[in-house]
Amino acid sequence: MPVLEVVGLRKSYKDRLVVDGVGFAVREGETYGLLGPNGAGKTTTISMVVGVLARDAGEVRIAGRPHDTAGRATKSLIGYVPQELAVYPDLTARENLRFFAGLYGIRGSEARRRIGEVLEIVGLADRAGEAAGKYSGGMSRRLNIGIGLLNRPRLLVLDEPTAGVDPQSRTSILDSVRRLAGDGTAVLYTTHYMEEAQRLCDRVGIIDHGRMLAEGRPDELGAPDLEAAFLQLTGRELRD
Amino acid sequence: MRALMLILRKDLRQRLRDGTLLIYAVALPLGMAFLLNLVMGGSAQRLDARYGVVGLPAFTERVLRPMEAAGRVRLRQVASAEEGRELTGRGELDAVFAGSPGPSSVANLPPAETTDPASPGATDPVSPGTTGPASIEVIGSVDAPVAVQVARELAESYAAAERGERLALAVAGAGPRAVPELRALPEPIRVRQDASLSVRQLDTGTYHAAGTAVFFLFFAVLICVSGIFAERASGMLARIMAAPVRGPVVMAAKLLGGALTALIGMVILVVASSLLLGARWGDPAGVAALVAAVVLAATGLMAAVATFARTAEQAANWQSVAATALGIAGGAFFPVGQLGGLAVLSQASPHHWFLEGLADLRGGGSVALPVAVLLGFAAVGIPVALARLGRVARA
Ligand SMILES: Nc1ncnc2c1ncn2[C@@H]1O[C@H](COP(=O)(O)OP(=O)(O)O)[C@@H](O)[C@H]1O
Ligand SMILES: [Mg+2]
């Protein structure tokens, strides 16, 4: 049974349909890349998947259970890393982690253990007492991801986790994702770095204008590589 | 409940670290209260007050006419104290000085000195031929605290001057009189205040402290409510909503954070202004009830206004406009009772009811009505805000 099943997801803003019947599934231990140019509808799709945005139509199931914006039981199975750097700059990394751990009901010694674990994974253990606002871009990105790992999610959802990150941090981020998937976590992530998706993803879905254009293993999708397939599907017209 | 406390603690810690709490809850209101106290302390000279006078020819000649000539006072003769009460009650006059015969117990004043030919008409006999001590009753309009305050001070200083004069005459006339006897000399003129009206006034220090406190209270709430929009823009809100926490709990925590920030600022200002500005706020239980009620009213109104905005900037702008307009209309900076139409408008302002409540408290009255009105503002604002904030979160 897939950890995440998405069927016929639809969303419009005013009269504009921005997600139009998107469906896919992610299995345990699988890394699924949702690829698309800017404005394709990736973030909107992901927001409905994690349950922060109400959908107009369609279904989302987490570990077989129906999920929506009110689904607190299913929300606790998901780790979410938003596209923005969603960390509190005035709080230290440890305080940020403690706050979000609390929101997931993780407290006391269990919270301390998980926070220590996460700080190791994202390589911030020795800077954990510093205000997050003083971190470099890469460190902030890593903390951003760390928060999403606190609840040891069965489904980890990352929205462009490597955007604007130096190669060292990018490698570290991708390594952690790979390791988590190796441990059985289902990973759903968006990017527009084709080469990265090609290396990391077991399967990818290419969306544009809110529609799923193609789905499959990176090597299935076309020659000579994913980037070529992507451009072929989405065209060469410039996006904002 | 746990999530609520968690978010609340986090928000307050953040406000403390980023300086918001210090600026909006402590520095700005305190600084402003000091400034206003300094500036408005000297405002009596620019006063344009409407005074009535019943009898009191000497007081009128010596004190009021010169002020009238200087254009600071518009003077009007009034037939009786009764009429004076009516006119101030209707707001046609700011204050009335009513002369009346003094209590008979002070009639046994040393006679020679007061009828001294050197100072004819120095005192204000209420009925011609009576040389006994008079009293000046100051009847004030509730809506003109500054004019009334000035009136009271005028009467007091006139009475004091008169007493000094008499003392001098007594010393001159009686030669080496015993000092204790001089001390026992009754006051020639006693200033009395209209019990029902003029006691319901805040002194200048308290007025400015209270006005600025309630004004900045709204801004403390503003910062916290705008914070919801900022958190949405930064993705924090999505992250919080992705956690297994009920949406309304998140919003309730945010509003409570705003209310607490405002409350902290208010408590600091009440204490600091009492110690530093000599402000007298009145019965602590009544003050506490008023403060709690106005904090809730501010939170509800500001949050409700903010929910109609689309961005953090817009939310902050709309709230600033609302907070400033309500503050001015409600008399947070200057008494609006003297501004005619605004006096009616001010009824729609929580600031007005808070200040009104404090004045009631000083008059020994009950704060039930102002507290009820303030809770009414809260009862409208908070549900509207909570209902609409859900949409803000999911937008
Ligand atoms: N809150 C919103 N209101 C109106 N339009 C929106 C909103 N959020 C996103 N959109 C529009 O929906 C489309 C898809 O956006 P998004 O899902 O963020 O794209 P992506 O993440 O693939 O870059 C874009 O055209 C965007 O302008
Ligand atoms: Mg996006």
From TrEMBL, chain A:
Ranges for domain ABC transporter: 4-234
UniProt-annotated location(s): Cell membrane
Broad class of the protein's primary localization: membrane
Membrane topology: Peripheral membrane protein
Key words, A-Z: Antibiotic resistance, ATP-binding, Nucleotide-binding, Transport
SMART domains noted in UniProt: AAA (SM00382)
Database matches in PROSITE patterns: ABC_TRANSPORTER_1, ABC_TRANSPORTER_2
Biological process according to GO: response to antibiotic
GO molecular function, one term: ATP hydrolysis activity
GO CC terms in record: plasma membrane
Family: Belongs to the ABC transporter superfamily.
PANTHER family xref list: ABC TRANSPORTER ATP-BINDING PROTEIN, ABC TRANSPORTER ATP-BINDING PROTEIN NATA
Protein's UniProt name: ABC transporter domain-containing protein
From TrEMBL, chain B:
Location in or out of the cell: Cell membrane
Domain ABC-2 type transporter transmembrane residues, every copy: 21-385
Any Pfam family matching the protein: ABC2_membrane_3
UniProt cross-references to InterPro entries, sorted A to Z: ABC-2_transporter_component, ABC2_TM
Transmembrane spans: 21-40, 207-230, 251-279, 285-309, 321-345, 365-387
Keywords: Cell membrane, Membrane, Transmembrane, Transmembrane helix
Topology class, membrane: Multi-pass membrane protein
Region of interest called Disordered, as start-end residue ranges on this chain: 100-134
Main localization (coarse): membrane
Domain of life: Bacteria
Single GO MF descriptor: ABC-type transporter activity
Annotated Gene Ontology cellular component terms: plasma membrane
Keyword presence, Ribosomal protein: no
Identification of the protein by name: ABC-2 type transporter transmembrane domain-containing protein
Provenance organism: Planobispora longispora
